[in-house]
Amino acid sequence: MNLTPVINDKRIAVTMGPGGVGKTTIAALLGLQAAVCGRKTLVLTIDPAMRLAGALGLDRIPPGAHHTISIAELEAAGVPARVPLHIAMLDTGQSLTGVITREVPNSKQQKRILEHPFFKRLCNDLAGSREYAAMEELYNLHLKGEFDFVVVDTPPTTHSMDFLEAPDRILDVLNNDGYRWLMRPALLASKVGLRALDFSGGYVVRTLSKFTGLAFLKELASFIDMFSSLMEGFRQRAAAFKAILRSDVSSFILVTTVDPNQSQETLYLHRKLFSRDLTPAAVVANRVVPEPVALPEVPDWRQLLTHELVAGRGETEPAVTQLIAAMEIAQQTLADLARRDRAHLEQLKTSLLNRSSLEVIYLQPEDVHDIRGLEQMRRHVFGQS
Ligand SMILES: Nc1ncnc2c1ncn2[C@@H]1O[C@H](COP(=O)(O)OP(=O)(O)OP(=O)(O)O)[C@@H](O)[C@H]1O
Ligand SMILES: [Mg+2]
Question: Which of 383, 377, 381, 375 is nearest to 365 (CA)?
């Protein structure tokens, strides 16, 4: 099981993949196994859909809140946990506010930034700000070292890529003089007023303002002006975070089903990770239909069962015949689905070109919606302890 070294040795694990394949469930599963192994673990969800609490049978966890599942609670659900399990939901506003309070020593300047309308827009999940906040949050958690292991549950593919690309995007912008060139007229405008923006802005500002509105641009300009002293810190943190993601403390778990459409999306993500020097620790094929248990090999089992149920239980013969037919259809259907999944699994394995190990997690009898269900899955995947 290639997930075991992830749990034993890594500091960060990021679950990624197409929508609905089981990323959140697997993130919670990794957290649970880590708690069984005695590692102090936080499962952090950056997905605004907030299914993490549901997977663990908890009430909704408000953004920004940390929740601890105690050893006693885990034991009550049959989990042989050695330490409690911590879970949290990212709050963009809280994380960004944290960055400012950490990075800006002067409280007056802090207040100016925190109360700036553009900062409020950022906190309200302006495109990309959630992923950026996730990066800052994870970086800070990593530096603080309070947890041995942090599992990050990401939203479906596009947004999880946004999360990985957040450091690059910041670096692109900050390393590139372009942003200064682009914003210079706007920066000037923020100092000398709207009138200046109108004529010193030139083509770029005129074009941008068509799309964003002059008021927005002016707001952005004054914000960037205020922010410029912090740019170097942003650049350094983005570069450091990128190095952490590439180092062997981090691991990426690609979750998929064997459905060809979802496999396709997973292979795309797989290539993307390699192209960014981020090696996936494992690809997990989830919800694979297992081979059904074979029906009895006793030759006359139909007659024996009929006799047992009619004579012993008072069932009617037609009812028992119907039951046996239903069992045989169910068995045949499951066998067909299992054969189909096996073929798809082989295709997926071939497409991975031996670049990543493929782990199989079978379809569980029920949806996973509490710790007990997750524990069953954990035993199936990792064994008793
Ligand atoms: N191995 C499994 N067997 C049975 N049900 C499963 C299994 N894995 C996950 N599920 C169920 O599949 C559903 C989707 O799982 P989950 O929410 O973890 O997916 P996700 O990839 O995080 O979705 P999203 O992209 O919406 O965030 C849930 O109802 C979950 O209980
Ligand atoms: Mg999810």
Answer: 377
Tokens 């069962």 sit on residue? 305
Ligand 1, residues 16, 32, 152, 368: which to mutate, most atoms within 8 A of Cβ? 368
348 CA to centre of ligand 1 in angstroms: 20
Pocket test for ligand 1, best of 24, 284, 286 (most atoms within 8 A of CB): 24
**Residue 194, domain member (yes or no):** no
Residuewise pLDDT in 10s, the chain (385 residues): 689 999 999 999 999 999 999 999 999 999 999 999 999 999 999 877 777 888 888 877 788 888 999 999 999 999 999 999 999 998 888 988 998 898 888 888 889 888 887 788 778 766 677 888 888 899 999 999 999 999 999 888 666 677 777 777 766 666 655 445 444 444 444 444 444 444 344 555 555 555 556 666 676 777 777 777 777 788 888 889 989 999 999 999 999 999 999 999 999 999 988 888 888 999 999 999 998 877 777 888 899 999 999 999 999 999 999 999 998 998 899 999 999 999 999 999 999 887 788 999 999 988 899 999 999 999 999 987 6
* CATH number for the domain that contains residue 269: 3.40.50.300
Q: Which of 296, 299, 320 is nearest to 308 (CA)?
A: 320
Asked whether residue 80 falls in the same domain as residue 9, the answer is: yes
Within a domain: 225: no
Same domain, 151 and 138: yes
As a whole number of angstroms, the distance between CA 74 and CA 93 comes to: 31
190 close to 184: Cβ distance less than 8 angstroms: no
Same domain, 249 and 332: no
Q: Which atom of ligand 1 is nearest to the CA of 25?
A: 18
- The residues near 251 (Cβ < 8 Å, ≥ 6 apart) are 6, 10, 12, 13, 14, 280, 281
Give the atom of ligand 1 at the shortest distance from the alpha carbon of 21.
21
Could you tell me the residue range of the domain that residue 307 belongs to? 301-344
Residue closest via CA to ligand 1's atom 11 equals: 367
**54 C-alpha to ligand 2 centroid (Å):** 10
Q: Whose CA is nearest to atom 12 of ligand 1?
A: 22
Q: Which atom of ligand 1 is nearest to the CA of 368?
A: 31
Any domain includes 214: no
**How many domains, the chain?**
2
Q: Among the atoms of ligand 1, which is closest to the Cα of residue 361?
A: 1
